[in-house]
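Suppose a colleague, Dr. K., hands you the sequence of a protein chain of 143 amino acids and asks what its three-dimensional shape might be. Before reaching for any lab equipment, you can write down a predicted structure in token form. Begin with the sequence itself:
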Amino acid sequence: MKRVLSVAAALVGLLVMSTAAHATTTTTIHVTGVPIDVGPAACIPGDLTISGNGVLHMTVNNAGDAWTTGTIEGNVTGSLGYTGHGVAWFGSEDNRSNSVNHFIANTVGTLGDGTPLSIHQEGQFTINAQGVPVVTRVTATCS
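The predicted structure, expressed as tokens, is then:
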């Protein structure tokens, strides 16, 4: 997730600079085979990585407000030999006063010893106009 968010933040920055004409700008980027680190696995040590296909959508209006979403789906890997299939989605909404970021990641796979493991993670991070985090929540379910 960290890598997706940093890529998205850089792209949003470029879009903000491109709004000099004071128009709403929308960009869509497709990725193929790019490994995305979706962050701590919670159920196993280390991070989960999804390698597959994805799409990013970014919109910036003439006030500099930005909306970014991204989805990636493909093969997942993690520590302890964890392999399987995964999907991750994130969204970010930013204006001059507030920022809301959220994500969901779901994987279905097996550990190196053959034990099946499904991981569901979701979270939200909200920052108010004073720059203070008012929501910081991440949950994980392992089954």
